[in-house]
Amino acid sequence: MTAEKAAEKNTEMTAPRTRSTAKRFLRDLSRQRARLWLVVGLLACHCVFYVLAPAQSAIVVNLIWEEAKGCIAAGRAFALTDALTMQLGILTSYYVIQWATYYVSAYLMASVAETLTLSFRERIAAKLNRLPLAFFDRHKAGEVLARVTADLDRISEAMQTGLFQLMMALGYIVGVLWAMLYYSPPLTCVFLGCMGVCLLIVQAVSKRTFAAAERRQETLADLTGLVEECYAGRNVIRAFNHEGATIASVGRDVTDNCEAQRRTDFLTNCMNPLMRTLTRIALALIALACGVQMLTGQMSVGVAQAFFQYVNIGAEPLCQAAFMVNNLQGALASAKRTYELLDEPEETPDPVPCLPAPAGPGRVAFESVRFGYDPATPLMEDVSFVAEPGQKVAIVGPTGAGKTTLINLLMRFYDVQGGRICLDGTPTESMARADLRDTMGMVLQDTWLFGGTVAENIAYGCPGASREQVESAAKAACVDHFIRTLAHGYDTVLDNEGSALSQGQRQLLTIARVILRDPQVIILDEATSSVDTRTEAAIGRAMDRLMHGRTSFVIAHRLSTIRDADLILYMEHGTIVEQGTHESLLAADGKYAALYNSQFA
Ligand SMILES: Nc1ncnc2c1ncn2[C@@H]1O[C@H](COP(=O)(O)OP(=O)(O)OP(=O)(O)O)[C@@H](O)[C@H]1O
């Protein structure tokens, strides 16, 4: 299949999609039907007075013409007659009404557009919270960001320009045709002939514009995703001297976006000169006919100039048609991408009614759990173990063994595909996710701090906590002393996710956050390798305090810290291949013993 045929097929396939997107978009828009009807009413009023103004100007011009001819014949000076003054007053009032109705309707349209954008943003924000983590595994942050920013901005812009102008253009054309038919039906037919040709061209081009605009938004999302990735990985890029390759790949995405933008702009701009030429031909023909009718006395000077004004008013929307169509097609392409995000399959909803999360004591049981990120290729086939209340469970194994996955399932970031996980005898899938997560506290390697004060960051899981509670959590996490050395102590604002803090300091703050939350079950991803020995000792003490009296899961990277664990799970290829205490596993002389001996022998 040639490239042109493929493009043709693509264009044919986009037509039904465009229609269904347009229908859905109109449904969303109709939620503000009262304000929209007001806009339509005001615009109709604006168009009526816009179209009446040339007719009124014909009366004024004819009066001036008659008065001027009378003055020349009588040899007197030109003076404003009462009739002329009154007609001039009426003409001025038409212009004032036109202006006022235009501005009020434009203001209302802007508010309709912004309210719609706001509702899309709210729906997307709520949706992002309901999407499973698998969605975020598949999509780059920048790509999602582009839908929330660039796509929604385009919809808003198109409504305020494209849709608004389209409604106004339709009003002008209807009014102008009515006025033209009143003055001269034959000349109106000339104008209608030109308009028909223009509309055929617009229709042919608009079919292609949707596909072009969709491609433009896609390339923009790819570019945003890549730039976001490069920004986040800037240190690694420099460390590996990959600046050149990175610039080249950004360059490729920029070129793709530029190409898509160029095609969309070309489709818009190529039509304008063509439309102008066609309308100029219509104007020339009409001017010729008006001249002949004036010379034969069939048309007055005032009517001729009014007719000319009507042709201009009617021609302008035709010249702008490509712009309006492009604008609206671009908005539809953006709306389609927004709906795609809103239609993404969500996490399975919490059961109704759901069981309350047990208040304690924190017994966790995995019962024949089966799971795979891709259900077709299971990672875990039959994972079972029990963590008794207050026990420390260490999870060890080579990289990619499934340690993090086990935690992801416990937190219900992903749902199990077989078997079940119970907390104090209650299956976790029978509880609301929020209730389950309330019982758990996580300290990850990937510490996350947000732009706010140190105190706010510690109180993230308990927004109502008092300053005393925050400070005592910080003391328990061995980070109080460090916080007091900061410029504003607990009120120091952390910028850029706390990037000015060291990895160890960030981890101590996240430990304080979990201590304050006081959960039943603790999950620790041990990450002490990147900190100095003093900080490591402080983190170790803080973690011990955190785990004291609570069921805890520790993803251990160094076996020295887990000799005292009540249960050690040794994992490989998603399966627990050995479980027991340190002593029993050493005695069994299996894989754990081999790993331990490789580290300490
Ligand atoms: N979001 C994901 N989507 C698809 N596959 C994943 C995802 N996360 C992990 N995996 C795969 O699942 C397997 C287990 O990964 P997991 O992160 O649980 O290992 P791990 O034992 O925690 O490794 P490490 O010690 O390196 O952190 C790996 O093969 C990994 O490639």
Automatic annotation (TrEMBL):
According to the UniProt entry, its GO molecular function terms are:
ATP binding
Q: Which residues cross the membrane?
A: 36-65, 102-120, 163-184, 190-206, 281-308
The ABC transporter domain extends over 364-598
UniProt KW keywords: ATP-binding, Membrane, Nucleotide-binding, Transmembrane, Transmembrane helix
Alphabetized CDD domains for the sequence? ABC_6TM_Tm288_like, ABCC_Glucan_exporter_like
Q: Which InterPro entries match?
A: AAA+_ATPase, ABC1_TM_dom, ABC1_TM_sf, ABC_transporter-like_ATP-bd, ABC_transporter-like_CS, P-loop_NTPase, Type_1_exporter
Q: What is its main location?
A: membrane
SMART domains from the UniProt entry: AAA (SM00382)
Per UniProt, residues of the ABC transmembrane type-1 domain are 37-330
Indicate how the chain sits in the lipid bilayer: Multi-pass membrane protein
Q: Where in the cell is it found?
A: Cell membrane
Domain of life the protein comes from: Bacteria
Note the SUPFAM superfamilies from the entry.
ABC transporter transmembrane region, P-loop containing nucleoside triphosphate hydrolases
Q: What is this protein called?
A: ABC transporter ATP-binding protein
Species in which this protein is naturally found: Kribbibacterium absianum
